[in-house]
Specification:
- Helix 3 crosses helix 4, helix 4 crosses helix 6 and helix 8 runs antiparallel to helix 9.
- This protein starts with a helix and ends with a helix.
- It is built from 13 helices and no strands.
- The longest helix is centred in the first third of the chain and has 55 residues.
- The protein is globular, with a radius of gyration of 25 Å.
- By secondary structure, it is an all-alpha fold.
- About 85% of the residues lie in helices and about 0% in strands.
- It is a multi-pass membrane protein.
- It is found in: Cell membrane.
- Its main location: membrane.
- This is AI-2E family transporter.
- It comes from Pseudoalteromonas distincta.
C-alpha cells in the first residue's frame, strides 16, 4: 500500500509545477474554510467585479480610459440597484407580509384536502397515514418558524456590519475594476516561479467563471421576469414574490426548481383549488422550467465545461455544505476547477512520460 501511494505521488507530483499548484490549492481551501465568513464582502465584490468587467472592457475598446469606463459602469450599476430596491423592495415586502399572514389559513385548507383523501381514495391511503403526514408537516413548520425567529434576532446584531458592507463592497468593486492590472500583477509576484500549471488552470477557469457569473445573472433575470409575467397574466397572487423565488431558484441546479414548485403550487391551490386555473399554472410553470433547462441554459453556458448532472448535484451538496450559499453559487465553477486540476495533473504525467521515453 505504501509503495503504491509513493509511486502515485512521484508520478503526479515529481514536477515542481505540480507541487506548487497543490500548495496553492491547499492554501486557498484553508483560507476559505477558516476565514470564509470574514471575507464575504470580498467574495461579493469579486463576483460583482467579474460581472461588471465585461462592460468596462467594451468601453475601453471604444476609446475610454479604464478609470472613466469604471466610473460610468459603477454609476449605471448603482442606479439600477437603487431603482430595483426602491421599486421592487416595497412590493416584495408587502407580498411577503400578506403571505405570512395567510399561511395559517393555507395550512388549514391543505390539511382539509389531505383529510379528504382517504374518503376519495380508500385503497391508496388511510387516515393514519394522513395524520402522520400532517403531524410531520406541522412539526417542520414549527421548526422553520423557530429558525426564522432565531435568525431575525441574531441578524439584528449584524445591522451595523451590513451597513458597513453596503459602503465597503462598492468601494472594493470600484478599485478591483480600476486597478485590475495592478492587482493581478501584485498577486502574480506572490506566486512561485514554477507556475506553468497554475497559469494553465487559471487561463481555463478565468473565462469560465466570468461567463458563468454573467450567465447566471441573465438566467435569474430572464426566468424570474418571464415567471412574473406569466403569473400576473394568470392572475396568481404574490406574482412578484413567486417570480423572484423562481428566478433565484436557478442558483441551485435541478434541486432549486423542485423546491420552488412547492410555494407556487401551494399558492395556486389556495387561490383556485383543484380547478382548471390551478393545473394551467402548473403546466405553464413546467414549460418555463423546461425551456430554461433545454434552451436558455445551453445558450447562456455554451462555453462552460460539460459536466454530468451527477457531478453537478454532488458538487452542489459538497460545496454547499462547506461554504453555504457561495458554495452552491459556485458549485459548477468549482466542479469545473476540479476537472481542470485533474486534466492539468494528467497532462503533467503524460509530458513526463514522454520526456522519459525520449
Amino acid at each position: 500500500m505504501f509503495e503504491y501511494v509513493k509511486t502515485w505521488y512521484e508520478r503526479k507530483f515529481s514536477d515542481p509545477h505540480s507541487s506548487t499548484l497543490l500548495f496553492l490549492l491547499l492554501v486557498s481551501v484553508a483560507l476559505l474554510y477558516f476565514f470564509g465568513a470574514l471575507i464575504v464582502p470580498v467574495l461579493v465584490a469579486l463576483v460583482i467585479a467579474y460581472l461588471l468587467d465585461w462592460p468596462v472592457v467594451h468601453l475601453e475598446r471604444v476609446g475610454l480610459k479604464r478609470f472613466t469606463a469604471t466610473i460610468i459602469v459603477m454609476l449605471i450599476f448603482i442606479s439600477i440597484m437603487l431603482t430595483l430596491i426602491l421599486v421592487i423592495g416595497p412590493v416584495l415586502w408587502k407580498q411577503t407580509s400578506n403571505l405570512v399572514q395567510e399561511t395559517p389559513h393555507m395550512l388549514e385548507q391543505g390539511k382539509s384536502y389531505l383529510m379528504a383523501l382517504p374518503e376519495q381514495y380508500p385503497s391508496l391511503i388511510n387516515i393514519e397515514q394522513v395524520q402522520a403526514i400532517v403531524a410531520t408537516v406541522e412539526a417542520k413548520i414549527i421548526e422553520f418558524g423557530q429558525a426564522v425567529l432565531s435568525f431575525s434576532l441574531t441578524s439584528l446584531k449584524d445591522v451595523v456590519a451590513w451597513l458597513i458592507y453596503l459602503v465597503l463592497v462598492p468601494l472594493l468593486v470600484f478599485f478591483m475594476l480600476k486597478d485590475k492590472l495592478e492587482l493581478t500583477g501584485s498577486i502574480a509576484k506572490l506566486i512561485p516561479q514554477q507556475r506553468r500549471l497554475i497559469l494553465q488552470v487559471w487561463n481555463e477557469m478565468n473565462q469560465q467563471i466570468m461567463n458563468y457569473i454573467r450567465g447566471k445573472v441573465f438566467e435569474i433575470l430572464i426566468v424570474g421576469g418571464v415567471s412574473f409575467i406569466a403569473f400576473t397574466v394568470l392572475d396568481l397572487r404574490y406574482a412578484a414574490l413567486l417570480g423572484v423565488l423562481v428566478g433565484f431558484s436557478v442558483l441551485i441546479p435541478f434541486i432549486g426548481a423542485a423546491l420552488v414548485t412547492i410555494p407556487v403550487a401551494a399558492v395556486a391551490l389556495f387561490q383556485f383549488g383543484l380547478e382548471t386555473q390551478f393545473w394551467t399554472i402548473l403546466i405553464i410553470y413546467g414549460i418555463i422550467q423546461a425551456l430554461d433547462g433545454n434552451v436558455l441554459v445551453p445558450l447562456l453556458f455554451s462555453e462552460a465545461v460539460d459536466l454530468n448532472p451527477v457531478f453537478i448535484i454532488v458538487a452542489v451538496l459538497f460545496f454547499g455544505g462547506l461554504w453555504g450559499f457561495w458554495g452552491v453559487f459556485f458549485a459548477i465553477p468549482l466542479a469545473s476547477l476540479v476537472k481542470a486540476l485533474i486534466t492539468a495533473w494528467s497532462s503533467t504525467h503524460e509530458e513526463i512520460s514522454k520526456e522519459l521515453s525520449e
